[in-house]
Amino acid sequence: MIRTVSSSLASFKPITFGSGLNIVLADVAEASTDRHTRNSAGKTSLVEIINFVLGGEAAKKTLFKHDALIEQSFSIEILLGDRWVTATRKGADDNIVQLSIDDAEALGITVPVSLFDDAQTQTPVSIETWKSIIGSYWFDLPINRDDTEFSGKGAPSFRQLIGYFVRRRKAGGFETIEKNTKEQQPGSWQVSLSYLLGLNWHVARQFQDMRDRKKVVAALKKAINNGELGDIFGATAQIRPELARVEKQMTALRLQVDNFVVHESYRKLALQASKLKDRLNEITLELSEANSALDYLAKSVAQESPPAYTDIERLYQMVGVELPNVAMRRFEDVKAFQASVTANRQQYLYEQINEIRERRDILSKDLDDEGKERSDILRSLAGKGAFDDLVRLQEELGKYSARAEMLRSKLQHAAVLENNRVQLKAESAELELKLQQSLADSDSSIKRATVLVDQAISELYDDRTGNLIIAPSRLGPQIRIDIQGGGNKGGIDMMKIFCFDTALLCITAERFRYGPRLIIHDSHLFDGVDSRQVSQALVYGDKVANAVSGQYIVALNSDEFRSADSLSDISLLPFVNVVKLTDDETGGLFGFRFDLEGQADTSIRK
């Protein structure tokens, strides 16, 4: 419960609350317009102050960081156990709260000795310690979460839980029953509500763990498909064939390396063998040319003969011409000369033939000798190689080995990823069955919540029925309220939140020794709600609050209040706080107007 809200700001209007229903009214000034951009009466700001001192974040653009307020402190007096404790916090130093030394000691907080020496009355407490202390009193959470079921990610926390009792319209707390902020993830609200309702919140946390794992797998799959992790992951069906080919090539190279023998003069002998090969080709060509020349010369010798002079004599005789003696002697001389020439020509051809035969014999011997030498060199090099050839083979083998190792790693990662996907599907189905069983085990808690919600609905409506639905699903526990005619973000949907919050107030009062024992709503909860239901909600809220020795704090505009009061079976005036807020220059909660530097308090209704 909360008893007082105050501030160091001199113009601030301190407010005191009692048990039961507490209505804070705001009158709307005639000068207000729909485009008014200043912090106005302060109904929503009142909720923000309470949330701030209860450990809420103080972002840069909140009113607590405004130049006009950053050095001002805000205080609330809350009931922890059987002790009223006043906590103070300000935007300029939002990482701590100030407690009185007496309160700190009563709460088990160690107070520095130096503060006693300086006769101080206040002691700073870290905001984390402060949240842990409230959580331990109101929700039975351990102050030290280490080595407990609350250690680790996803366990219920004070800030997650308190948001259902101090709903903030700015944070999106009036959109659905299960979420107290617009950004609240399923893991948060499923765990928080399971804890508050008395269900097995550990199962709900396992669903969040499952979601986290699925996100990682999905992100990896997306990165693989986009080629960002192609060197690390892939599909096993594609990797295995490539790995087989690489390993085959690697085996062949390793065999070559293992059988490789280094010859110290390999390069020199290999060059010599190459030269001998070229020389053998030249000799073979020369031998071919020599054989051709011999054939030609042999034919030339066979065709060489003296001129046919007798044929010339016979020709003359046939024509009846008798050659004179002088002519005949001349023919004889020419014939002798020609015979001499022919003899010399033959002699020359025979000499050429002999020379070519000798050259051919030499070439044949050179061919045999150099062929034998080359054969000897090749035999000596057989199965051997140069050292740099071995190095080259080893380097190539190293490349294939590295590639094979990368592919094996890639295959392993791909197999793990594929196995995870299959395993996640199996675990998800198993977890859903586990959730069904846990809800069956929590049947009494579900029934209690259902009865409380039914009771609230019946108090609000005579012509409508509804149900609290708590059901298992593959996404975790689903929690909602169905009321006839709801689902259009209208007044009925707002009343679903009211019904759910009053049920939570009763349940937490029963489950926890002290519990928060309060609900705080501002007028936005009643947007679009028929005045009759507003009236019924205020009366029922008072009834529930008194039943749990708690309080229901509501901030309303005066016109809403008048309509609700006129339709109520009892007068609502006794529940109105003595402090009245208006949205004129000095009538607001802070006593003055200020711009929120582009962060106008649009939650202030005009």
Give the helix level as a range of percent: 40-55%
Provide the residue-averaged pLDDT. 81
Q: If helices are DSSP runs of H or I spanning 4 or more residues, what is the number of helices?
A: 16
How does the major sheet shape up?
6 strands, antiparallel
- Top-tier CATH class of the domain at 2-199 and 514-582: Alpha Beta
User: In angstroms, what is the radius of gyration?
Assistant: 54 Å
How would the global form be characterised?
rod-shaped
- Percent strand: 5-15%
CATH topology description of the domain at 2-199 and 514-582? Rossmann fold
Low-confidence stretches: 34-39, 226-233, 261-265, 598-606
Global structural class: alpha/beta
First-to-last CA distance: 29 Å
How many strands appear in the DSSP assignment?
Answer: 14
Order of helices and strands: EEEHEEEHHEHHHHHEHHHEHHEEHEHEHE
**What order do the strands of the largest sheet run in, or round the barrel if closed?**
2-1-4-5-6-7
Per CATH, the architecture of the domain at 2-199 and 514-582 is: 3-Layer(aba) Sandwich
Describe the protein in words.
The protein is built from 16 helices and 14 strands. It has 606 residues and is of the alpha/beta class. Among the domains are: 267 residues, Rossmann fold, CATH 3.40.50; 122 residues. The strands form four sheets. A six-stranded antiparallel sheet has the order 2-1-4-5-6-7. Helix 8 packs antiparallel against helix 12 and helix 14 runs parallel beside helix 15. It starts with a strand and ends in a 24-residue tail after the last strand.
